[in-house]
Amino acid sequence: MRTAVRWMTMMHAVTIPPFESFYEQHRVEVLRLLRHRLGTDKADDAFQETFLRALRAYRRLEHGEHLRAWVLTIAQNVALDALRRSKPTAELVESGAEDAPPAYEELAQLTDGLPPTDDAAVVLRYGYDLSYDQIASALGSSPDAARQAASTGVRRLRRSASS
Amino acid sequence: MTVSSDLDRRFRNAAFALDLVDMGFDVVETPIGALFVAASARGLAAISFESDPDDQLERLARIAGPAVLRSPKSIDDARRELDEYFAGRRRVFDLALDLRALPPFTVSVLHELARVPYGETTTYGALAAAVGRPRAARAVGTVMNRNRIPIVLPCHRVVGASGDLVGYAGGLDRKVTLLELEGAL
Description:
The structure holds two protein chains of two kinds.
Chain A: H1 2-15, H2 19-38, H3 40-58, H4 67-85, H5 103-110, H6 116-127, H7 132-139, H8 143-162
Helix pairs in contact in A: 2-3, 2-4, 3-4, 4-6, 4-7, 5-6, 6-8, 7-8
Chain B: H1 5-17, E1 23-30, E2 33-39, E3 44-48, H2 57-64, E4 68-70, H3 76-86, H4 104-113, E5 122-123, H5 124-130, H6 137-145, E6 158-159, H7 172-181
Parallel strand pairs in B: 1-4, 5-6
Antiparallel strand pairs in B: 1-2, 2-3
Helix pairs in contact in B: 5-6
């Protein structure tokens, strides 16, 4: 048993990258997502909260796969919490000054008018290409509910585009 | 877009303050070059003359698990004592050590090594005898060569039976500098 535990611990250490590497690799993308969701001012606090949540959970990870999707779902969750706390004053979009905006940036501008959950589901599904399982864990819902939120969001977008 | 140094520092300090860092590290500038220094809650775990963190992170994760983060505050005590040592104001380090993941023979040799006083030298054979393995001078040499916490665990104070300096993982120049600093040469 002790040997098994030690072996598990070793495998754990080998397969999951040191947090420093993980943080260096994903921090810019996380900050970009949070700025688009919350505006520059509120993004800083959300950035810190995102990586603190990730670090708190990091020791319990069972493998090092899908870490990008994982941290983006945490960021999306933190952003949703912040939006729920301060809905009336939330500034959603900051226009980036970079050359070619990635897909999720253009999408984030389109989805601004959606309710927060639909917005998050659409951006994560079509902007970041996450699975419904991953989106469900970000939103704290079931995969079916995530699929539902994304499709409702897309329907609303189509309606607002045609009106 | 980049993450500002202020935001980056705030996150790293918060992670340390919330006790979420299993192994923190930073680079310390010294007269013998930049040192990579790492510490856990148990104590100082590593000092390396190879100051590029990228080469060290996996090694630290094998000791403490994956919550490894650059965190200047994690090594505040070590930085202060190293500064004092290099300024000639400290002869004994008062730092707890994290010797996890080292084999028992290595740990017993390092405990003996820690007792070699500032400004003095000993030999590989004498250390081997001190741990009850008088014929294991060569194995002691290997332990010195792989010493995870040089300077604080003073492998620079160990020389050959003939008085030759023999070798040093950080290079003989550094061994000479440290022994001169201590007045042993």
